[in-house]
Design goal:
The complex is a heterodimer of chains A (151) and B (135). Chain A has seven helices and no strands. The two termini of chain A are 29 Å apart. Helix content of chain A is 70%, strand content 0%. Chain A has 151 residues and is mainly α. By secondary structure, chain B is mainly α. Chain B contains five helices and no strands. Chain B is globular. The two termini of chain B are 27 Å apart. Classes of the chains: A mainly alpha (151), B mainly alpha (135). Chains A and B meet through helix 3, helix 4, helix 5 and helix 6 of A and helix 1, helix 2, helix 4 and helix 5 of B.
Chain lengths: 151, 135
């Protein structure tokens, strides 16, 4: 069944997509920068890196991202899901400003504003394109008569 | 493989080709994955009917899904290759924002999505926003 307005659960899944991807990337980045340089000559160190806490958390978050992304794509259009989930960039910018106390330039504030307005635009529209349902064998006589007229 | 530090930086056309490779393979991956998920149907309903295992089975038995994941993997390696030659501050915002636009075009023509003025505006605003944010 096509849903054109989202349920709270579906908003939650979109929120998970938006949050898990940037947080997962941040965890991976933090984990990898705390490790000594890894050479391709010693691939074992790369496998060992997978089991460090930050990288394990990053991989778990990215698996969560992909699962919720696939779920969102099963009931919403790609052109709805992608801009909506770009809101994660805004969340990360706010986290870096207020948690990590990193400065945010005017350009970045402008970017945050544009993404927020863009997400607001797309979120107000329908989430799924309505496609005409194919006429089934059980279609009523009115539909049959209409098909005859078309022929 | 690292290129020697004495190697000249790639010209603008080579840089554009590297970014185009990321954008095109990423768009192909996103569109194929979206088509796969639409052909499978609402995963929430499948999970309610046949449980989590049923939902996972439905995804893993769809060939389109693997085609999409293949292209997404290609996009990842194209990104790694580009990062080996170009600055992150160029590659990340350019590929992320251009992918939004190409996905809107591909969604309209390949997935037959209703990309109306509202969605075009949103895609363009988010595209510029992502570029500004990453700079």
């Amino acid at each position: 069944m096509a849903h054109h307005t989202l349920t709270p659960r579906q908003y939650l899944i979109l929120g998970l997509v938006a949050l898990c991807a940037p947080l997962g990337d941040t965890c991976l980045s933090r984990g990898m920068t705390h490790l000594p340089p890894i050479s391709l000559a010693h691939p074992g160190t790369l496998i060992a890196a997978v089991f460090t806490p930050w990288i394990t958390a990053g991989i778990a978050l990215l698996i969560g991202f992909f699962a919720s992304y696939l779920t969102a794509l099963s009931w919403a259009d790609l052109t709805f899901v992608l801009p909506a989930t770009a809101f994660g960039n805004v969340i990360v910018a706010f986290l870096s400003r207020f948690w990590l106390h990193e400065p945010i330039s005017v350009m970045r504030w402008a970017g945050i504003l544009l993404i927020t307005v863009g997400v607001g635009f797309v979120a107000q529209g329908p989430s799924l394109t309505e496609k005409p349902a194919p006429l089934s064998e059980n279609a009523g006589p009115a539909a049959e008569a209409e098909m005859e007229q078309v022929r | 493989m690292m290129i020697p530090s004495s190697a000249p930086p790639p010209g603008p056309w080579t840089a554009a080709a590297m970014i185009a490779a990321i954008v095109l393979s990423s768009t192909a991956g996103e569109v194929l994955t979206a088509a796969a998920m639409k052909s499978i149907g609402d995963l929430d309903e499948i999970r309610a009917r046949s449980g989590l295992k049923g939902a996972i089975r439905a995804v893993l038995t769809c060939p389109l899904f693997f085609a999409g994941v293949g292209f997404l993997a290609l996009a990842f390696f194209a990104l790694l290759f580009a990062l080996n030659h170009l600055d992150l501050s160029l590659v990340a915002p350019a590929s992320a924002s251009l992918t939004l636009v190409t996905n809107a075009i591909a969604g309209k023509f390949f997935l037959k999505e209703n990309v109306d003025r509202r969605r075009w505006t949103a895609a363009m605003l988010v595209c510029i926003g992502v570029y500004l944010l990453a700079h």
